[in-house]
Design brief:
- The complex is a heterodimer of chains A (381) and B (544).
- Chain A is built from 13 helices and 16 strands.
- In chain A, the strands form 3 sheets. Chain A has a 7-stranded mixed beta sheet, with helices on both faces.
- Chain A starts with a strand and ends in a 5-residue tail after the last strand.
- With 544 residues, chain B is of the alpha/beta class.
- Chain B has 4 domains: 68 residues, Alpha-Beta Plaits; 116 residues, Alpha-helical ferredoxin (Fumarate Reductase Iron-sulfur Protein, Chain B, domain 2), CATH 1.10.1060.10; 147 residues, FAD/NAD(P)-binding domain (3-Layer(bba) Sandwich), CATH 3.50.50.60; 147 residues, FAD/NAD(P)-binding domain (3-Layer(bba) Sandwich), CATH 3.50.50.
- Chain B has a 5-stranded parallel beta sheet with strand order 5-4-3-6-18, with helices on one face. In chain B, strands 8-16-9-10-11 form a 5-stranded parallel beta sheet.
- Chain B is elongated.
- In chain B, a hairpin with a 5-residue loop joins strand 13 and strand 14.
- Classes of the chains: A alpha/beta (381), B alpha/beta (544).
- Chains A and B meet through strand 9 and helix 8 of A and strand 1 of B.
- Strand 9 of chain A pairs antiparallel with strand 1 of chain B, so a sheet runs across the interface.
Chain lengths: 381, 544
């Protein structure tokens, strides 16, 4: 069935299709409508779930952790400051190996207050042990939720599906709603790897000795490194639903003069601009999965390019754009290291228009060497 | 990574039960049931909360059995009780009090209809044991309830009544419209007089001779004769005037079925108690054209029930306050001229009400065909040749209006009858008159501030409208709904909040549905006590 869905509606429908047993969330702009839809569905009996009202995002994540530890499939959603408030609990969720799925709607972080989109909130959580998937449109958000459950439950790690405030969350576009039976068949009921048992009470996540702690952290890292699992799940999904959600998507020639790297909604604009004006010179690499970072495939693609232009809708203050950092470190092992142009665009929800993308490509074409610091949107005017 | 490598989880190797976290506790929750405000206020100490919990489950007969543990006349009290329970019901501070009195009335009526018999009696002592012969003088509510409670404890008793019917003031003092006679007699018969071990003797007028026989024949004697002697005004024109009648005599005459012709006449009543109001309403009901009450204080100082005063005024009875009769004169046209002196209110007297003081000035003059004097009653203890209650032999006990200082209500009489039964029991068992009070045994009473009213939903009482229907199924539904409104103050009704909220799974559900605390693991956080809606849990400092 095709329907016109905003990103938030798609997120709610995606969650519903996965039959969560517990939902605990706290409203925050621009995520609010996701949980409004969900609470309505729970109230109407369309989802047979326990909806836990909480007083903060910290409690929302704590409730999710508790419910997941009790053996339930759980869902939550948040944004910006709410995600930052959850920070402590995010480590708990991954350390306890609980496959919680959360939709984070990107929004800039205060101060000053700003409700428009950028990736600083989700990328600030890159080291928490959560798998991160970045969506470009409503369809991707919807499909990424069943995918996230399948991946998370296979490797026992929590998954964050990242949407974008207003550009995605509040903009409607057609999306294909998968049949419930197909999702049921693809995902199946949750079979927890561990759960709390009152008959045999045990402490989980209690104080450990350094040697045990190190072993447990290593085991989280090994689960992240097990990228083959993601590939397999994506292939499975493609086989059932016919939509491909590879960690990295490339459009255009494989050895282009310029490789434009983007994520989220920006990649859509880039694709348009390239196909209209630069189809012979540039290709687009869209990064869908940021954690675990798909190192091998990005290295393989990047080293064939003449120059690389990376668009970051975020800034690691004091360093550079976070996607740029990741690409740079990946290319260190490569014999061929193309020059990298870094652009910090769309901070605090600044519109990234086709003209700006054109300027990015033109700038990269015109300059032989990149400046030794990132180029900001205002520098391009 | 090897895909077959198992995932490691941060799971402790030993059971959590090995760590007795109860050691960390500095405060300790204690499950401590408390007295509810309704029961504390009830003069009979009815177990109101407990019976409402049974009504909630539609266990009407069991609820009635709890009621008759303390009160043998629920259908009667359901009609005439001043309902201190409802006034004190903590739900009154939330929305509306639980309609406890109506529940009592309906349970009493159900029992009479279904013929339930009170249960839970001790076996009667062998008849031939002479020690333990008990005489009860007066078959009013105090005497009857004392006989009933003694029977519950396994004693025989003989009741001696001066009139030809049991009930005392219930029969002769309370008008038919407030308490139907046949219902009263039926309930007395069903719940008290039909019990083996209770024998009633009618038409026994006490005098010095019989009193001395009693003293020889009985091991314990209860005097529960009530206040039968009407006080007089002591003013000129009162004595020997057939148009002046005492309030009690007036009520007795009508309640005994005698005809009094008041058609078209004007009746004046003196007094402000329930007798005065009952007499005024009754006079109006049997045909008096105009009825007015003369009272020496203000209307709000009247000791009569407020509801009755209101009803009287609605029926057109005038209350003239701050006047006191000083002279009665019979006129040739058969009217009485009643001269009253005007009063003003002074400092509060012993009863706590302002003392009326006569003021000079022209008298207030009224006219009436009849004057009913209802200025209070006192006991007639002439048969014991002494009016000093303190000088009685130690095996003589008192109950009812003679001892009551609680406004002479039926509830107070029954309460004092119950207490007398306990005193007699103690006396017969130990030979001692006074039972030593155990200090500190007094139960705490739950206050509204002690409740966690977050867990209660606002819901008004529908049972108060029950007089609109006689349909049994509807009444049962209404009773259940009303009982569900009870907060169950101070008593666990297994709501499970403590169990739900305990972060340490230290609250355990027992087999009987009640909850207990596992002190091995309770850290004393106090959440259970805080979330208990009905103040059953107390936190106190841990002593180690």
């Amino acid at each position: 069935m095709r329907m016109l869905a905003t990103g938030n509606m798609a997120a709610a429908i995606g969650a519903k299709l996965c039959r969560p047993e517990v939902i605990a969330a706290y409203p925050i702009t621009p995520q609010t409508t996701i949980i409004e839809y969900l609470s309505q569905m729970v109230a109407d009996g369309r989802i047979k779930a326990e909806y836990i009202k909480v007083e903060s995002e910290h409690s929302a994540m704590a409730a999710c952790i508790g419910a997941a530890a009790a053996g339930c499939r759980v869902f939550t959603a948040t944004s910006s400051q709410g995600l930052l408030l959850m920070h402590e609990m995010l480590f708990q969720a991954s350390g306890l190996r609980l496959p919680i799925v959360m939709v984070n709607v990107n929004r800039a972080v205060g101060a000053p207050w700003c409700v428009y989109t950028d990736q600083s909130d989700s990328l600030a959580q890159r080291d928490t042990g959560w798998i991160q998937l970045y969506a470009e449109n409503s369809q991707e958000i919807l499909d990424m939720i069943p995918l996230a459950y399948k991946i998370g439950e296979t490797v026992s790690l929590p998954v964050m599906v990242v949407s974008e405030g207003f550009i995605l969350s509040h903009t409607a576009e057609p999306a294909e709603i998968p049949e419930q039976e197909k999702v049921d068949k693809f995902l199946g009921p949750y079979q927890p790897k561990w759960k709390l048992d009152p008959a045999d009470p045990r402490t989980y996540g209690g104080t450990t000795k350094p040697v045990d702690y190190a072993a447990l952290r290593k085991s989280v890292q090994e689960a992240m490194e097990n990228i083959e699992v993601q590939k397999k799940v994506v292939e499975e999904y493609f086989a059932v639903f016919g939509r491909d959600y590879s960690a990295v998507e490339i459009s255009g020639p494989s050895a282009p003069e310029i490789l434009l790297i983007a994520s989220g909604t920006t990649s859509g604009t880039c694709r348009e601009v390239i196909s209209e004006k630069y189809s012979d010179k540039a290709s687009l690499m869209k990064i869908r999965m940021f954690r675990p970072f798909p190192e091998d495939v990005t290295r393989k693609i990047c080293r064939q390019a003449g120059k690389i232009a990376i668009i970051d809708r975020n800034i690691s203050v004091g360093s550079r754009g976070i996607f740029s950092e990741a690409i740079r470190s990946v290319l260190y092992d490569s014999p061929n290291r193309p020059s990298i142009f870094e652009f910090i665009l769309g901070i605090g929800g600044l519109d990234i228009t086709p003209e700006i993308i054109s300027k990015v490509i033109d700038y990269t074409l015109e300059h032989r060497y990149p400046p030794n610091k990132p180029i900001w949107q205002e520098d391009l005017r | 990574m090897n895909p077959d490598k198992p995932i490691i989880f941060p799971r402790h190797t030993k059971s959590s039960l090995e760590i007795k976290t109860g050691d960390w506790r500095t405060f300790r929750p204690e499950i401590r049931p408390k007295n509810s405000a309704c029961r504390a206020a009830c003069l009979i100490h009815n177990r109101i909360r407990d019976l409402l919990q049974l009504v909630k489950d539609r266990e009407f007969e069991k609820a009635w059995q709890i009621l008759v543990e303390t009160n043998p006349l629920p259908a009667v009290l359901g009609r005439v009780c001043p309902k201190a329970c409802e006034t004190n019901c903590l739900r009154g501070q939330f929305d509306q009090p639980v309609a406890i009195n109506t529940v009592e009335k309906l349970l009493g009526d159900m029992a009479l209809e279904a013929g339930w018999k009170p249960e839970g009696f001790k076996e009667l002592t062998p008849r031939l044991r002479l020690r333990q012969r008990i005489a009860i003088i007066g078959a009013g509510p105090a005497g009857l309830s004392c006989a009933y409670q003694l029977r519950r404890l396994g004693y025989w008793s003989h009741i001696f009544e001066v009139e030809k019917a049991a009930g005392g003031m219930l029969y002769f003092g309370i008008p038919e419209y407030r308490l139907p006679k046949n219902l009263l007699l039926q309930e007395i018969e069903n719940n008290i007089l039909s019990l083996d071990g209770i024998k009633i003797h009618y038409d026994v007028q006490m005098n010095v001779l019989t009193w001395h026989h009693f003293l020889c024949d009985f091991d314990a004697i209860l005097i529960a004769i009530g206040n039968q002697k009407s006080r007089k005004l002591g003013i000129p024109g009162e004595e020997g005037n057939p148009q002046v009648i005492s309030g009690l005599d007036f009520l007795k005459k009508i309640n005994a079925g005698k005809k009094l012709n008041l058609n078209g006449k004007t009746v004046a009543i003196v007094g402000g108690g329930n007798t005065a109001i009952d007499a005024s309403r009754l006079a109006k009901k049997i045909g008096a054209r105009s009825v007015f009450i003369l009272y020496r204080r203000k209307e709000e100082d009247m000791p009569a029930f407020q509801s009755e005063i209101k009803a009287a005024k609605n029926e057109g009875i005038e209350i003239i306050s701050l006047v006191s009769p000083v002279l009665i004169e019979k006129r040739c046209d058969d009217l009485l001229r009643i001269d009253c002196v005007k009063m003003e209110l002074g400092e509060p007297d012993k009863s706590g009400r302002p003392k009326p003081i006569a003021i000079s000035g022209p008298p207030h003059i009224t006219f009436a065909h009849n004057l009913v004097v209802a200025v209070g009653e006192e006991p007639d203890l002439s048969f014991i040749q002494s009016n000093q209650k303190d000088l009685l032999p130690e095996n003589v006990f008192l109950a009812g209006d003679i001892v009551s200082n609680k406004g002479g209500t039926v509830a107070a009489a029954i309460g004092s009858g119950n207490k007398a039964a306990q005193e007699i029991d103690w006396y017969l068992k130990t030979g001692q008159r006074k039972r030593e009070e155990i200090p500190g045994k007094e139960e705490t009473i739950v206050r509204f501030e002690d409740l966690n009213s977050e867990y209660f939903e606002h819901k008004n009482s529908r049972l108060r409208l029950c007089h609109l229907t006689h349909e049994q199924s509807v009444l049962e539904q209404l009773l259940q709904e009303e009982a569900e409104r009870c907060f169950s103050c101070g008593d666990c009704n297994s709501c499970g909040n403590c169990w739900l909220f305990c972060p340490d799974i230290a609250v355990k559900e027992a087999a009987d549905g009640k909850y207990g605390i596992n002190y091995d693991y309770c850290k004393g956080c106090g959440i259970c006590a805080n979330e208990c809606p009905r103040n059953v849990l107390d936190m106190e400092r841990e002593v180690k």
